[in-house]
Amino acid sequence: MKKIRLLIVLIAIFTLQTLPAQDVTTVEAKSADISENLDLEAVASVFGEAKDLEDFEKKLNDPELKISNLDLNNDGEVDYLRVVETSDKNAHVIVIQAVIGKDEYQDVATIDVVKDKSGDTKVQVIGDVYMYGPDYIIQPVYVHPPIIFTFFWGSLYRPWHSPFYWGYYPPYYHPWRPYPPYRYRQNIHVHVNVHNTYNRTNVRVNKNSVNMQKRVSKNDYARKHPDRSYQKRIVNNKAKQRPQHYTKPANGNKAKAKPTTRPVDKNWKPKTKPASEPSKSYMHKPSTKPAKTPSKKPAARPSITPTKKPAHKPTMKPAAKPAHKPVRKPAAARPVKRGGRR
After folding, report:
1. Is 303 domain-assigned?
2. What would the pLDDT profile of 170-188 be if each residue is shown by its tens digit?
3. How is residue 175 annotated by DSSP?
4. What is the b/e burial string over 290-317, where b = at least 16 CB atoms within 10 angstroms of the residue's CB?
């Protein structure tokens, strides 16, 4: 029996060692702002490459492209984005909505397609105010006229309203786990057509677009979570960036308010100086400087100058002049010459 048990244990150990290691890593979207999970330039780029609105909705939810990274209902899967359209004369408003639950939708972005009097078609991609804040508008200029323009202005045009809803999706779609923010930015960069131009503006071309959008607008997520709007997120992010002890500006004066890193004790008073404080280095500086300067300069100058000059000049000049001149003048042969002539 002991041998059989030992054999079973050895077989189990060998089996565990030979089994391939399983990857249990999960990817979660952790972004400071939910608007970073749907790049509107990528949306504008994909819109210009679609042949109609049905094809546009398919590209938005393609598991291979992964244009969206939104998970508003926080179920660990990217939300399906449906496309709903409304039109009025020469203007079309396409609303992109996230499917977040049964009969629950949230506007994410809106696309205005407007034909002006000259026959030119202009496109604007507008981020929802709750998601992106006010006046977040991208106006793409396509390098080639998109095929989808013929869908809007052709004779076979039919308004598009997505037939899909919570629990009922097209066969090509299967949900995927959201990326972390840096991975999503790397992925989405590939799907933005760099040949197009993406201008930023704060004015909508069609003044009637807001009223047209209200016909199909859905904001179930915004009503449930008013504290998660763009304005509230900005305020909360700024509050998180403040130091732990932050002093608010007094009387609205921002220049006088400074962040502090430690609490302030108003009753604080300086303590008495200890007896050992005079022995610090800065207390000896005045005494060392006066001691060095008088000892060097007065001792060096009197010892050199008075000894050399007086000893040299008096000895040489008086000895040379009196010894030389009196010898030559009396030694002249004047008395000798006078005696010779006589």
Report:
1. no
2. 999 999 999 998 899 999 9
3. -
4. eeeeeeeeeeeeeeeeeeeeeeeeeeee
Cα 280 to Cα 286: distance, rounded to the nearest angstrom: 12
| pLDDT value of position 34 | 76
pLDDT of 261 > 90? The answer is no
Q: Structural domain tally of the chain?
A: 1
Q: Which two structure tokens, joined as six digits, stand for 46? A: 């994909």
Tell me if 283 is assigned to some domain.
no
Q: Which helix (H) or strand (E) holds 187?
A: helix 181-189
Position 280 in a domain: no
Query: pTM score, two decimals?
Result: 0.62
- Residue span of the structural domain in which 191 resides: 34-241
CA distances from 176 to 16, 63, 68, 209 (A): 31, 7, 10, 33
Stated length of the chain: 342
Name the phi and psi angles at 58, rounded to 5: -65, -40
Residue 65: inside a domain? yes
